[in-house]
Amino acid sequence: MTDTRAYLEVSPEQGAAFFGSPDQGPVVMLNLLRLREWADYGHAPDLAPAAPISGADAYARYMCEMLPLLDASGGEVLFSGAASDFLIGPASEGWDYVMLVRQASKASFLAFASDPEAQRITAHRTAAISDSRLLPIRAD
Length: 140
Hints:
Elements: H1 12-20, E1 27-35, H2 55-72, E2 76-82, E3 97-103, H3 106-114, H4 116-128, E4 129-137
Antiparallel strand pairs: 1-3, 1-4, 2-3
Helix pairs in contact: 2-4
């Protein structure tokens, strides 16, 4: 079965399952991102730049503004970089950008993600991406 939906935000069910389970310390989030050719600020026209920008440029704005909030929350980017096609995996599922972000706990991640300024800045991410995956990872 092939799922052709785009995933841009956490669903209420997935959020409840993740945050409703026991908090067992640090969590690393694997981000897989597919960028739009051109950013779409239709949902946040107040943040739209005067001239059109690429999805990559909109994502760069998101990261530039979000990093100070991430640092203040105790989180950190462990790795980020450009991606392309899988070596092992479906050829139809290429990703443009990959990132690993560590948070001290699910509670600190929730506080970070719930911050009104972080939510405002997230509009750049929404403008930038056409699809994404976010996979929480715990150390053994």
